[in-house]
Specification:
The chain is of the alpha/beta class. Helices cover about 30% and strands about 25% of the residues. It binds adenosine-5'-diphosphate.
């Protein structure tokens, strides 16, 4: 049996340069969901993408993760020029990125173990799958819950399973789209604690879209979007920024 590989990762660097994404709506009008976005994120960074609904947060996550294509500009993750990737190379990029969603997106008929392993089902992998799932579930605080179905778990536990699943390929980058949006504030805080711990332990870079000022305030950096453009980009590490006021009023 092949031993489980080292789960430590190196955080990815992420570079966006003049990224544009347009959607053509039914009436033929064009909507610019990303309007020349440039952003550099260092390895191990934890960046909150904030802004009102429809401001382009999810669009940016989809573009960086390679699940949607940009119309102009470049996106580079580590040494991969995502905007130039096609076919197998693009699929490989998606495996280097972990996704976490607001609604968890677990498969209801599968156990926690099989949900965690779902992304590797079509692949031969150099590790023991059951051992790996157990290790990841333990890492997110769910040791012993391998056989549980999502319907037997709380929302917070389901999100933990989803985070374990996102880590299956040891990604250097985690893209989290409103990961606390379906949870009460206490459980949401626990999930954020978990993401912060994973970032410290593994060095994983995290881009996190959130409406919630409390969640945003715990990140290193706040990037605020409006109509597909960055309106504010604030370093929160000094700890003296009033995030709620910033998000309520605009301007920094
Ligand atoms: P946010 O995550 O900040 O709520 P989104 O990135 O989801 O914003 O959306 C940005 C804009 O792009 C919105 O106006 C949204 O309606 C539009 N949009 C997103 N995806 C599509 C799509 N597949 N087709 C058409 N319009 C879309």
């Amino acid at each position: 049996m092949t031993s489980t590989p080292d789960l430590t990762t190196t955080g990815s660097t992420v570079l966006l340069d003049g990224v544009v994404k347009r959607y053509v709506l039914d009436e033929g009008t064009e909507l610019v969901a990303a309007d020349g976005v440039s952003l550099a994120v260092e390895a191990g960074g934890l960046v909150a993408l904030t802004g009102p609904s429809g401001s382009g947060k999810s669009t940016l996550l989809h573009l960086v993760g390679g699940v949607d294509g940009a119309d102009a500009g470049t996106i580079t993750v580590d040494d991969r020029k995502v905007t130039a990737l096609r076919g197998d190379a693009l699929a490989a990029h998606r495996r280097h990125v972990g996704f976490v969603f607001q609604r968890f997106n677990l498969l209801g008929a599968l156990t926690a173990r099989d949900n965690v392993l779902a992304p590797v089902v079509p692949f031969k992998v150099p590790f023991d799958k059951a051992a790996r799932a157990g290790e990841l579930l333990a890492a997110v605080g769910l040791a012993g819950r391998e056989g549980s179905l999502p319907s037997r778990m709380s929302g917070g536990q389901q999100q933990r399973v989803a985070i374990a699943r996102a880590l299956i390929w040891s990604p250097g980058l985690l893209l989290a789209d409103e990961p606390t949006g379906n949870l009460d504030s206490r459980t949401g805080a626990d999930i954020l604690d978990l993401l912060l711990a994973l970032r410290s332990e593994r060095g994983t870079t995290i881009l996190l879209a959130t409406h919630d000022p409390v969640v945003a305030a715990r990140c290193d950096r706040l990037v605020r979007l409006q109509d597909g453009r960055i309106t504010d980009d604030v370093d929160l590490r000094p700890g003296d920024v009033d995030v709620a006021a910033l998000l309520a009023g605009g301007g920094s």
